[in-house]
Amino acid sequence: MAGKPVLHYFNARGRMESIRWLLATAGVEFEEKFIDTPEDLEKLRKGGDLMFEQVPMVEIDGMKLVQTRAIINYISTKYDLYGKDMKERALIDMYSEAIYDLTEMIGQLVLCPPDQKEAKVALTKDRAKTRYLPAFEKVLKSHGQDYLVGNRLSRVDIHLLELLLYVEELDSSLLAPFPQLKALKTRLSSLPNVKKFLQPGSQRKPPLDAKTLEEARKIFKF
Ligand code: GTS
Prior knowledge:
The protein is α+β, with helices and mostly antiparallel strands.
């Protein structure tokens, strides 16, 4: 039997968090090897384990996969979270890209210089409220099904749940005008594997604090 996937990344959300979410939802146990110092990253690079000298890297099924989207595609395909045909996959990709756009906007806020922060937060909230959340609300309302695509769970539902939790961290009132999204969030949160991942003590990571951000800057030199 193949061993558990091993995830190599910093001990924070970043690009790895969606991968953690997918594995957890699929009920797959995984190990994490954290990169805590510049030397840890250098060791992986010198060992030839990082094709483009970057993380995330996931050891799975005898491969050392890099590039976040490639890793997500592989896991989604393997655990049947990627639609049943080309058209469903096209929708899943299209929705996922939009979810990544807003997730990234929210993620970038922590890096924002203090003098630009207020404007960036306002813009991000506005984009959530007027562009992204209404679009997904409309999809759910239009077909009346429990999941975004194909009437069954796919990676895009999991990406959306992750995003909705970040949106709520940003401003807990933002979801109020979107009953379909709130219902989706409740439904998904009660799936046994998701429920487990949402419990304290799981491998889900907290928001980035200033100290962790400083450590990440030293390692990844951004
Ligand atoms: N396109 C890559 C992906 O999606 O996986 C980008 C990966 C990437 O930029 N990783 C950063 C890194 O390894 C770490 S982080 O931005 O995810 O925190 N940086 C080091 C470097 O030399 O690029």
